[in-house]
Design a protein that fits this description.
The complex is a heterodimer of chains A (213) and B (217). Chain A is mainly α. Chain A folds into 2 domains: 62 residues, Winged helix-like DNA-binding domain superfamily/Winged helix DNA-binding domain (Arc Repressor Mutant, subunit A, Orthogonal Bundle), CATH 1.10.10; 138 residues, no CATH class. Helix content of chain A is 44%, strand content 11%. In chain A, the strands form 3 sheets. Chain A has a 3-stranded antiparallel beta sheet with strand order 1-3-2. In chain A, helix 8 packs antiparallel against helix 10. Chain A is elongated and about 75 Å long. The N and C termini of chain A lie far apart (59 Å). Chain B contains 10 helices and 11 strands. Chain B folds into 2 domains: 126 residues, Beta Polymerase, domain 2, CATH 3.30.460; 86 residues, no CATH class. Chain B starts with a strand and ends with a helix. The relative contact order of chain B is 0.13. Chain B is an alpha+beta fold and 217 residues long. In chain B, strand 8 and strand 9 form a beta hairpin. The chains are: A mainly alpha (213), B alpha+beta (217). Strand 5 of chain A pairs parallel with strand 10 of chain B.
Chain lengths: 213, 217
Amino acid sequence: MKQKLINIADQLKGFQSVEDIQELLRVNRTRAIYLMYQLRKHGFVKTRRTSKGKRYYYIGFENAIGGTSYLETLNKYAPTPLGSFGTHKIYGKAISVEETLIYALKREDIRHIIALLALFKHIKDWSLLYNLAKKEGLVREVCALYDLARKVVKKVRKMPKRFKNLGTPKKNDKYKYIVDLFSSNDFKEIERKWRIYLPLNLRDVAEYRGFKT
Amino acid sequence: MIEIKEQENLFLQIARKLKTKVNCYAIGGTALMFLGLKAATLDIDLVFDKDLERRAFKEAAKLSGFNEMDSRIMYGKKENVPEVVKRSDSRIDMFLFKVINSTFSESMQKRSVNTHQFAENLFIRVADVHDILIMKSITGRLKDEEDIVRIISTSKVDWNIIIEEAKNQIELGNTIAILDLGATLEGINNKKLSEIPKSVLDELFGLFKQQAKTKVR
């Protein structure tokens, strides 16, 4: 890539309209559009439209960064998209819903837990989910959250009986927290069944449309 | 020059040859590219904290067509030089814990919160902008000044982190790092390329004076 083009991208960083580009670079409209075409080819440009249909270009080197993140997959299904502290981008590998669910659970954050409930609706490979959960020692947590998802999210498919049997707490199993020191007042039954403290109450999951009381 | 897409493809090729998990930290231009602050870099700088992982990465790079290079050609007789591999225009410098005059400290590692995972086995954590600024200052190359100015103008620099890390580097025995850091920042300030708070420069100079006194005693 020509250094000149990089310098232009650097100069035009941020939101710009064609008129802004013309003014900043002192070029005519045709040249401005051609430059946008060149920058887009290198992945530096994302186009947005205003309500009136006017094009705005968001120019930045970060647009060229590829990969996908767990957060993007989670936000695809979550009722309220989450912001991020730090990113985990993945290249050369498709991210499955099952992996995303375990990732969100491991974050030990209430907003991530609320968001991951929506993922149960899209689980296709239950054995993959079981293996991932077992590897992280989170089988009981997944079972408890699944039961919660069945209560609050519409059209969640049935979990295989084998998964539930394998996740059933043994006599000596103690209660575990998903998020430290957070327990539920409204889902005591699920907590007792799996010996897992759920960090959510009814009000926390009200944003799911298919909410049933 | 290595561009963003080229860099991604290169890491992906190496990652696919790796047989074990490898963790490393991206510093310098590579980190700036991951952060979207730069479009191309001359070389890829990585810091490893385990020699075993560095060796595994080097082997995978060799399998991807890279050749080993004598690091003295690039770095001369400096201490803590990296192992270097090269393929046509792409060069990868692989440091082990220490980067020339500085140490990629535990606090720097903790601040590296952005992770880029390539295929199954390669995990690259991106150094924080503050730490990139410190390491770029310490190398004292003219082209790094541009990057420092870019960091200061585009990121919200918390100068307390810079000072705390400077103190940390002294504790780790990298006293020369303070001199380089202070000199580079003062140079940038004097050239009016960017404004560095006077209190920061004073504090860095104070730290250096303190060290000099201790050495004289």
